Amino acid sequence: MSVLLMILKLVAALLVILPLIYISIKYGGNRLQNMQNGNYMKILERLTLTKENSLLIIKIGEKAYVFSSSGSKLEILMELEPEELKKIQESKKVTQYKDFNEFYRNFKGKLNIHSKNELLKKLKDKFRVKDK
């Protein structure tokens, strides 16, 4: 009898905890992400060289710097020119599409494809799929 009672308590606790976790992640996740993105400092790029050493590009205000990070110290290697900073930020932008049709048209335009059959043929050729 006590085992059945413990199982019922466990199920009841899960029925309370799981929705709370879901709500916390759904509504609190954006706030947590915004807290992690600093207003004045942002790590744009990180390149790990060894287990303890890495290079970082950090934007502080309107300027960007290349930092060397090791286990015990962090030092500025150089300041980036505004043009270099602009290039880095442009390369990191992800294209946003309104809907799938816009994405598909853009994709077709890049591949010079004018029909679905042409697209299928190019994909089959690329992935070496043979017709049955």
TrEMBL record:
Transmembrane segments annotated in the record for this chain? 6-25
InterPro entries named in the record: Flagellar_biosynth_FliO
Q: Mention any one GO cellular component term assigned to this protein in its UniProt record.
A: membrane
Q: Could you name the domain of life of the organism this protein comes from? A: Bacteria
The primary location reported for this protein is: membrane
- Record bears the keyword Membrane: yes
Alphabetical keyword list: Cell membrane, Cell projection, Cilium, Flagellum, Membrane, Transmembrane, Transmembrane helix
Q: Does the keyword Transmembrane apply?
A: yes
Any one biological process term the GO annotation gives: bacterial-type flagellum organization
| Localization per record | Cell membrane
| Name listed for the protein in its UniProt record | Flagellar biosynthesis protein FliZ
Q: Which organism is this entry from? A: Clostridium pasteurianum DSM 525 = ATCC 6013
